[in-house]
Amino acid sequence: MDWDKLRSFHAAAETGSLTAAGDRLKISQSAVSRQIAALESGIGVPLFQRHARGLVLTDAGIKLHAATTDMARAASVAHNVVKDAMDRPQGDLTVTAPIAFGSTWLVSRLQKFADLYPDIHLHLYLDDREYDLLKLEAECAIRLWAADKADLIQRKLSSVNTSLYAAPSYLEKYGTPEVPQDLDNHRIIVYGEQISPMHHANWAQRVGRDDRPPREASLTVNNVIGMVRAAEAGLGVADLPDYMIPENSNLVKVLPGMKGPHFDLYFIYPSDLRRSNRIAAFRDFVTSEISEFRATEND
After folding, report:
1. How do residues 68-102 score in pLDDT, each as one tens digit?
2. N or C: which end of the chain has fewer CB within 10 A?
3. pLDDT at 237 over 90
4. d(CA 265, CA 155)
């Protein structure tokens, strides 16, 4: 089969739209339509049902899409191999990281990376959900949990510690907890996106409860930055990563003698890209920056 026709089909199957497929491939909608029509004519079965809301795959289309997904991934890997054959790292690099870590710690350091590697063009996806690296939704990831697939390579970067925090205005109004059980009478801010491993950080609901049900949350927020802002506004007590609390923050530690859960931070990428000098450059940069940050923390 002609790869150009299969590529047009794959883009249409992924986007559900001829127009969006054309935008992705940088060709016209009519060109995509002709390629798909020729493909359907060649194999003798329809691949899409046309609806007002977009394209819907037929049974044959579903089967072909599974095959073209593998082909598209192989083509992308081959393209990356060519890029990584260059002596100097260059080209696009797609990275995903958790929202809080990416926006508060990583982004502020990327100018240094850009100065070191001006020919690498980063595409940074900040999201607390897990991107599928084996399908190349991203080429590498920084995650607060370990990889669970054999075809992924991972390196532990550091551990992220958490503590309970609240604003002085909140503590003046509701009192300062002296023991974990005092939290039963306090407003609790929690991470509210249950599909993410991040919800395990909701220690403020559990500490001191033993076998009893967790405390009811007064506020749920679906990213950690929002939790920090809510705590700063005096809305309650939140379990937050220590690295996110700057020296000039108005937040103070609650039950400072106790430590919350910690998360191991990993750099993860597909084994197919183990020889990628773009990924190696970014991995080594992040590793070095974290080492410097830890050294500063311990001074």
Report:
1. 877 777 777 666 666 665 667 888 899 999 988 99
2. C
3. yes
4. 9
Q: Whole-model pTM?
A: 0.68
Q: What is the DSSP letter of 118?
A: T
Are the CB atoms for 250 and 201 separated by under 8 Å?
no
Q: Has residue 266 got a pLDDT over 80?
A: yes
Residue-wise pLDDT for 111-139, tens only, equals: 999 999 999 999 999 988 889 998 888 99
* Residue 10, token pair as written in the block: 């794959």
Domains of the chain in start order, with CATH, are: 3-83 (1.10.10.10), 91-158+264-298 (3.40.190.10), 160-263 (3.40.190.10)
Looking at residue 209, its pLDDT comes to 86
Which residue type sits at 235?
A: L
Q: How far apart are CA 29 and CA 168, in angstroms?
A: 58
Nearest to 120 by CA among 102, 142, 140, 93: 93
37 close to 79: Cβ distance less than 8 angstroms? no
Q: Which residues pair with 124 in a beta bridge?
A: 95
Which residues, in sequence order, are bridge partners of residue 53?
none
Q: How far apart are CA 91 and CA 81, in angstroms?
A: 11
Give the integer Cα–Cα distance in Å for 287 and 289.
6
Angle in degrees, CA 149, 152, 154, rounded to 5: 110
